Amino acid sequence: MKKIYQIPGAPAPIGPYSQAVEVNNTLYISGQIPIDPKTGKLNDSSIATATQQVMNNIKALIETAGLDMSNIVKCSIFLKDMNNFAVVNEEYAQYFSSDAPARETVQVSKLPMDVDVEISCIAVRF
């Protein structure tokens, strides 16, 4: 059975996708960008602020599914500029107390709404 999740109170996705989909106890979280779900506007005054917003969006989706951040097993980080890696890494690390998930970080030429960071995740219901 497939279950769809959306951040409570968030605007609907701008394209034909779901924010998160759970199948067979695995939650697939679509790439999150720094959109504030309350306002629908970008929260990207700095790369640190943008990363915090992205991670808060992921956390909201995880919690909506009845999980927590320790259920995340894999993340993919997409950066417009790899020079931002250290700052993104520092902010990202604050969301995992131990046993951080597997991940990769890649530089890409462009992201939706021309943001600087996008992160997707996979979580498992243990």
UniProtKB/TrEMBL annotation:
CDD domains: YjgF_YER057c_UK114_family (cd00448)
Superkingdom assignment: Bacteria
One GO term describing the cellular component: cytosol
GO molecular function, one term: deaminase activity
Pfam entry (one): Ribonuc_L-PSP
InterPro entries, per database record: RidA (IPR006056), RutC-like_sf (IPR035959), YjgF/YER057c/UK114 (IPR006175)
Signal peptide interval: none
Family: Belongs to the RutC family.
PANTHER family xrefs: 2-IMINOBUTANOATE/2-IMINOPROPANOATE DEAMINASE RIDA, PROTEIN HMF1-RELATED
Protein name, per record: 2-iminobutanoate/2-iminopropanoate deaminase
